[in-house]
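Chapter summary example.
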Amino acid sequence: MPGHAGYLASGSRLGRLLDREQQGDVGLFLMESPEALQAVDEIVKVPGVDAIMLGPFDLAHALGLPGQTTHKVVIEACREISAKARNNGIEIVWTMFSGSRAA
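The structure predicted for these 103 residues follows.
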């Protein structure tokens, strides 16, 4: 994500994370499978994991709900991952393709 830190408020948690990423010092874990969801309690304890990127499109597909990113099962999985990550000081990064769906 080089160059994106300038778009964020100076000193924000995500801004600091992106600044570190530009120096090659960030552990980012992509979660988009049922296996990752089942292992989230262990994943958030791994030293060096600074952020988890949620892939809701791939996660929905892997959960047997292709294209259904707003299905309650997918939403609940993303909430669970997000809560467990944040409770362990890990940032959450989302992939989104539409600003209207992000609201």
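To summarize the output: The longest strand covers residues 28-31.
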